Amino acid sequence: MDLIGFSEEEYNKIKGEINYLASKSEYKNQNLTFIPISALEGDNVVSKSKKMSWYKGDTLIDHLEKLEVLSVII
Question: Which residues contact residue 35 at a Cβ distance below 8 angstroms, ignoring those fewer than 6 apart?
Fold first, then answer.
Protein backbone atom coordinates (compact mmCIF):
# COMPACT_ATOMS: atom_id res chain seq x y z
CA MET A 1 0.00 0.00 0.00
CA ASP A 2 2.99 2.26 0.55
CA LEU A 3 3.75 2.26 -3.17
CA ILE A 4 0.19 3.09 -4.25
CA GLY A 5 -0.51 5.84 -1.74
CA PHE A 6 -3.05 3.80 0.24
CA SER A 7 -5.45 4.12 -2.71
CA GLU A 8 -8.63 2.03 -2.53
CA GLU A 9 -8.96 2.23 -6.31
CA GLU A 10 -5.45 0.88 -6.90
CA TYR A 11 -5.96 -1.81 -4.24
CA ASN A 12 -9.15 -2.98 -5.95
CA LYS A 13 -7.40 -3.02 -9.33
CA ILE A 14 -4.58 -5.22 -7.99
CA LYS A 15 -7.09 -7.43 -6.16
CA GLY A 16 -9.01 -7.91 -9.42
CA GLU A 17 -5.84 -8.86 -11.28
CA ILE A 18 -4.93 -11.44 -8.63
CA ASN A 19 -8.46 -12.88 -8.69
CA TYR A 20 -8.24 -13.15 -12.48
CA LEU A 21 -4.89 -14.99 -12.32
CA ALA A 22 -6.21 -17.28 -9.57
CA SER A 23 -9.24 -18.14 -11.70
CA LYS A 24 -6.89 -19.45 -14.38
CA SER A 25 -4.86 -21.57 -11.95
CA GLU A 26 -5.25 -24.38 -9.46
CA TYR A 27 -6.51 -21.79 -6.94
CA LYS A 28 -9.70 -21.05 -8.91
CA ASN A 29 -11.92 -22.74 -6.33
CA GLN A 30 -10.14 -21.33 -3.30
CA ASN A 31 -11.48 -18.59 -1.08
CA LEU A 32 -8.76 -15.94 -1.20
CA THR A 33 -8.52 -13.23 1.45
CA PHE A 34 -7.10 -9.81 0.64
CA ILE A 35 -5.79 -7.51 3.36
CA PRO A 36 -4.16 -4.20 2.41
CA ILE A 37 -1.09 -3.70 4.59
CA SER A 38 1.83 -1.33 4.81
CA ALA A 39 5.24 -2.90 5.15
CA LEU A 40 6.87 0.38 6.16
CA GLU A 41 4.60 1.38 9.03
CA GLY A 42 2.67 -1.79 9.83
CA ASP A 43 -0.77 -0.50 8.83
CA ASN A 44 -3.42 -3.25 9.15
CA VAL A 45 -0.86 -5.74 10.42
CA VAL A 46 -1.69 -5.60 14.14
CA SER A 47 -3.99 -2.60 14.37
CA LYS A 48 -6.38 -0.88 11.97
CA SER A 49 -4.92 1.73 9.67
CA LYS A 50 -6.12 5.32 9.85
CA LYS A 51 -4.79 5.74 6.30
CA MET A 52 -7.16 3.09 4.93
CA SER A 53 -10.48 3.92 6.58
CA TRP A 54 -12.18 2.46 3.50
CA TYR A 55 -11.00 -1.05 4.52
CA LYS A 56 -13.47 -2.68 6.93
CA GLY A 57 -11.97 -6.18 7.21
CA ASP A 58 -9.70 -7.83 9.74
CA THR A 59 -6.09 -6.92 10.36
CA LEU A 60 -3.53 -9.50 9.27
CA ILE A 61 -3.02 -10.82 12.81
CA ASP A 62 -6.79 -11.06 13.43
CA HIS A 63 -7.22 -13.03 10.21
CA LEU A 64 -4.33 -15.38 10.99
CA GLU A 65 -5.72 -16.07 14.46
CA LYS A 66 -9.05 -17.16 12.94
CA LEU A 67 -7.60 -19.63 10.44
CA GLU A 68 -8.32 -23.29 11.02
CA VAL A 69 -5.20 -25.37 11.42
CA LEU A 70 -5.25 -28.69 9.58
CA SER A 71 -3.38 -31.65 10.99
CA VAL A 72 -1.55 -33.90 8.58
CA ILE A 73 -0.31 -37.31 9.62
CA ILE A 74 2.46 -38.71 7.48
Answer: 44, 55, 57, 58, 59, 60, 63
Which backbone phi and psi does 58 adopt, to 5 degrees? -70, 155
Evaluate whether 43 touches 37 at the Cβ level (below 8 Å).
yes
Cβ-based neighbour number of residue 55 at 10 Å: 20
- Alpha-carbon distances, residue 33 vs 5, 67, 73, 74 (angstroms): 21, 11, 27, 28
CB 42 within 8 A of CB 61: no
- Per-residue pLDDT of 26-51, as tens digits, reads 877 788 999 999 989 999 999 999 99
